[in-house]
Amino acid sequence: MLEIVGLNVRFGGVAALSNVSLKIEAGQIVGMIGPNGSGKTTMLNAISKQVRVSQDSTIIFCERDLKGRSSSQIIRLGIARTFQAPEVCGEESVLETVITGGHHRNDSSLIWCFLGDFRGRRAARDILLEAMELVKEFEIEDWANQKMSQVPYAIAQRAQICRAVMAHPKLLLLDEAASGMTPSEKDQLRLAILRLRDERKITMLIIEHDVSFLSDDLSDVMVALDAGKVIAHGLPGDVLRDPAVVTAYLGSKAAAAVTRGD
Known about the structure:
Blueprint: E1 2-11, E2 14-24, E3 29-33, H1 40-47, E4 58-61, E5 64-65, H2 71-77, E6 79-81, H3 94-100, H4 108-115, H5 118-137, H6 153-165, E7 171-175, H7 183-200, E8 203-207, E9 221-226, E10 229-234, H8 236-241, H9 243-250, H10 252-260
Helix pairs in contact: 3-6, 4-5, 9-10
């Protein structure tokens, strides 16, 4: 579904990503880990066209080259994402926030609504019903009418996932979606993510600071970044035991202990 070859992103003289290559197959949940500043969010920004990549970088999605495409075109092609910090509009409710994700599918439906067109009214009704179903699925229906600025951080996180799903993506990019959640909330989120894959057939690339969240029962594949480079790729258990990954997180002494089997 997604193939990245030789991805390079620089901010001034700093290389945020250096010659990164990655493949994601349809139906996979890919977990991406790495210490702070390793380039994880930059990777999502590059795929979703939030940052400029070098001219020699290649990103292919569903056999389409993404070079030269805008962020809004990326959404329409089937890639949606969330952000580390949920976007909060003071007067917008949780349900209204979720509904806005559906407008990416067909902006003309809004025009039809304003003109009183039947197709517009039907489209708006369908979007509302779908948003209400998602809010219930992610167990935030009790907060549906609350302003986004007034709900707990974990609820806002789930609301922005729902908004991204409303765009009907083929590939969903989640940036630390479990941040700020309690263990029980993380368990609920894990189950919801698995349902998105199994029932909605959504492929996912998930960044998470909590490595345990991306355990074997969630991620099919794990990728580790450090200093803008891929240092490990494979099954989650293998990646987490990789000496380069242990070094990146815990230092060289811990890596040596892993290698010895201590």
